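LOG
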Amino acid sequence: MLWRDSSKWRKGLLSALMVLVTASAVMSRLNYFEWMFHPVNAPEFEAESSSKLEAGEMILAVRYGDDARAYPIREMAYHHILNDVVGGVPIAVTY
């Protein structure tokens, strides 16, 4: 009954408000950061001798015990986070 008696501009405003509320409710339940920053869950590594890194390329390095890893900044700049296990300890590498 209230909808029927409302003017067109009031119906338009109410409809826009309902769309905004619905979109906000949907976005609050989604992890939209994974859309922007795709985590790498299963990294693949190469030996230093067979890597294709240039001599001046920057890397992030992690060493734990006898285990060591190097992550190219070029790749990390896109993904921003990488899940890995170094020396038996799970880590999250981020840049």
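LOG (cont.) second protein
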Amino acid sequence: MVIDDEQALLLLVKNILEPEGYKVSLATDGQSGLALMAKEQPDLILLDIKMPGLDGFQVLDIIRQRSNIPVIMLTGVVDRNTLSKFLNIGADDYITKPFNPDVLVARIKAKLRRAWR
């Protein structure tokens, strides 16, 4: 599942992951992402930081209250303090935008491999 307010990024990630065999659900804001998460029970979430309404910090906090699902932050923020804060509050990893599609797929595979053990 991908939660990001940038429509172009959502479609890009979907176009990268679907040929790899992943079913990709998309949400354009935190609130709809949380509702979709409850409905679909995804195996992993890619989550943006800066979104209208609930931001990535708030969404991650709610996800951690409900689930141990792997969460990879997809972010344009490269500030080490912000990135370390995400890891400290429960993110499993982060990928900075723009990203290499091969790195995105590799990190997703690594997180899912560990989650399915």
